[in-house]
Every structure is written in C-alpha cells, then in structure tokens.
C-alpha cells in the first residue's frame, strides 16, 4: 500500500514584463506539467501575479523555478513558504503596508477595512498570548474592525474598557469570561485615566492571560502604565486616508494628569469609534454592552 506524500505550499510571485496574450496559460501549463497544483491566484498592482501553489516535492518546485527564469516575459520576484502577508496579498490582490524600519507596524486606510479585518482575524486565530496595539483618530473604525475580526475568527470578545455605545470600565470578570479563546479589548485612553484600582488590577490580570489582547491607543496605555511599546507584538495604524496624522497631544495631557489620580469625568467620551460605519448590525445577537 503506497502512502500519499503530504503536499506543501509555496508562495509564487512574478513581475509581468510583457503582458502578452496567453502568458498566464503558459505559466499554468508549466506548473501542470511539473505536477504542481495551483491553490489560489490573483493579480497584484496591475503588473504582478501571485499564486499559492502546492506540491509534494521540493525538487519539483526548484526545477519549476529554474524553468520559469527562462521565460523572458516575466521576472520571478518571490518563491518561498507563504507568510501571512503573502496569503492576504493573494486573497485581496494588494499588499499590507508595513513600516520599512519597524516590521511590527502595519498601516491601513479606511478603504482597507476588509483587508484589516481579515488580517486581524488571522492574528486572532493563532493560539497563545498576543498583544496588539491599534492607533487611530476618533471614528476611523478601530473598534468595529476589532469586533469584526473577532467574529471572523469565531472568537468571543470582551471589553475591559471602552467608549463604544456607553463608557465601559470593568473591575472584574466572571468565571466564564476567563478563556484563552476570548479577545480582550482595552481602550488605552479610558484605562490610562481610570483611578479605580480594581480596574487597573483587572487589566494587569488580563495581560497575563494566554490569549489575545487588543489595546486601542497603545501610546496612551503605555504613558500611564508599567508596559512599554516593546511589549506589543503588532502595532496597527488605521487612518481615514493615507496622509492623516495620528495625534495624541490633547489626549496625552489628560493621560499624564491621570497619573496624579485626577478625575476627568466624561472628557474621553468623544473618543469612541463609530460602530455603524461599514458593518451595520451584522455582529449578531451576541453583542451586549456591559
């Protein structure tokens, strides 16, 4: 009895030098002749094409790479085991923008919400501790993206602090709310100025759980806590448009004051995200504000 070898995936991307008729067919035929399957295919930036390919032999893939380099109409750019950013590029037909110097910073615009939700969902599906910060000005879509990402990843979400619908400041969790599969959401602006010691103790407890934690306004969270930016595994920046500045000057003034245990009432009430922009009421009946 012969056993089937498990097929492994690779990410293939090439630049189109001459976009002649039948070019894609030639590449696909070459893959077929080599016994390599095409899992997913998409165009990227009008001049590139990306694939997820599958094969039970690394030698076949290496031979395919050699043959591909003989086709003058294209230039091979990437052939490697697929990373998360590769899978999303094939799925959405565009790349995630990543900071040139700090590789844990990813940038999105408002029109990218679908891509952002997909990116978050993939991060949320990974097991174990993960600390994600999301920067952005008011009402750009931060909270709705986190919740939509949780829904897409089939994860329950819990607000530890929030200004969504009404201000939320939790001081405790009940037994069923401790779960490694939950996504815990913290509004860094609200938590930074909160003087309730039980809330601060709960935040510290949540941060030790082997689960996903998402902190909105991570800079303000760090400003008034013992955590540092290096504690974050990913930083997401969300803007209404590419050139929008994310400025926290006024909010930072309040955060610094919060260290002196001053109460600012509802001054942060205007920093919640709009919830009806782009996702409607599609989150199901399970969402209830605390």
Strands, helices and their partners?
Blueprint (H helix, E strand, L loop, with lengths): L7 E9 L6 H11 L3 E8 L3 E8 L2 H11 L5 E7 L3 H9 L4 E2 L6 E5 L3 H13 L4 E6 L6 H11 L4 E6 L5 E2 L13 E5 H6 L3 H11 L4 E5 L1 H6 L10 E6 L9 H10 L32
Parallel strand pairs: 6-12, 7-11, 7-12, 8-10, 10-11
Antiparallel strand pairs: 1-3, 1-4, 2-3, 5-6, 8-9
Instruction: Give the SSE string.
Output: EHEEHEHEEHEHEEEHHEHEH
Instruction: State the end-to-end distance.
Output: 59 Å
Rg over C-alpha atoms, rounded to the nearest angstrom: 23 Å
The name of the CATH architecture of the largest domain is 3-Layer(aba) Sandwich
Structural class: alpha/beta
How many structural domains are formed by the residues? 2
Number of helices: 9
Question: According to CATH, what is the class of the largest domain?
Answer: Alpha Beta
Give the percentage of residues in beta strands.
15-25%
The main sheet comes to: 8 strands, mixed
What does this structure look like?
The chain is an alpha/beta fold and about 290 residues long. It has two domains: about 10-90, 2-Layer Sandwich (Alpha-Beta Plaits); about 95-255, 3-Layer(aba) Sandwich (Rossmann fold), CATH 3.40.50. The protein is about 30% helix and about 25% strand. It contains nine helices and twelve strands. It has helices at about 25-35, 60-70, 85-90, 115-125, 140-150, 190-195, 195-205, 220-225, 250-260, and strands at about 10-15, 35-45, 50-55, 75-80, 95-100, 105-110, 130-135, 155-160, 170, 185, 210-215, 235-240. The strands form two sheets. Strands 5-6-12-7-11-10-8-9 form an eight-stranded mixed β-sheet, sandwiched between helices. It has a four-stranded antiparallel β-sheet with strand order 2-3-1-4, with helices on both faces. α3 (about 85-90) runs antiparallel to α4 (about 115-125). The radius of gyration is 23 Å and the shape is elongated. Residues about 255-290 have low confidence and may be disordered. This is DUF3388 domain-containing protein.
């Amino acid at each position: 009895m012969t056993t089937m070898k498990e097929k492994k995936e690779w990410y293939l991307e090439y630049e189109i030098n001459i976009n002649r008729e039948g070019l894609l067919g030639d590449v696909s035929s070459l893959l077929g002749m080599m016994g390599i399957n095409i899992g997913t295919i998409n165009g990227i930036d009008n001049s590139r094409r990306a694939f997820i390919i599958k094969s039970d032999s690394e030698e076949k893939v290496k031979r395919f790479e050699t043959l591909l380099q003989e086709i003058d109409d294209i230039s091979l750019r990437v052939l490697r085991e697929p990373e998360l950013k590769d899978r999303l590029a094939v799925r959405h037909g565009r790349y995630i923008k990543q900071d040139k110097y700090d590789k844990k910073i990813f940038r999105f615009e408002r029109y990218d919400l679908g891509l952002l939700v997909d990116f978050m969902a993939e991060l949320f599906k990974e097991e174990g501790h993960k600390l994600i910060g999301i920067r952005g000005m008011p009402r750009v879509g931060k909270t709705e993206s986190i919740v939509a990402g949780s829904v897409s990843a089939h994860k329950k979400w819990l607000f530890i602090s929030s200004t969504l619908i009404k201000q939320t400041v939790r001081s405790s969790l009940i037994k069923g709310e401790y779960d490694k599969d939950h996504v815990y959401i913290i509004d860094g602006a609200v938590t930074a100025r909160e003087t309730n010691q039980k809330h601060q103790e709960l935040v510290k407890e949540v941060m030790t759980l082997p689960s996903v934690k998402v902190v909105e306004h991570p800079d303000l969270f760090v400003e008034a806590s013992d955590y540092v930016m290096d504690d974050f595994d990913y930083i997401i920046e969300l803007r209404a448009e590419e050139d929008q500045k994310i400025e926290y000057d006024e909010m930072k003034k309040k955060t610094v004051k919060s260290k002196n245990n001053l109460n600012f009432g509802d001054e942060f009430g205007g920093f919640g995200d709009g919830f009806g922009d782009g996702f409607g009421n599609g989150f199901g009946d399970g969402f209830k504000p605390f």
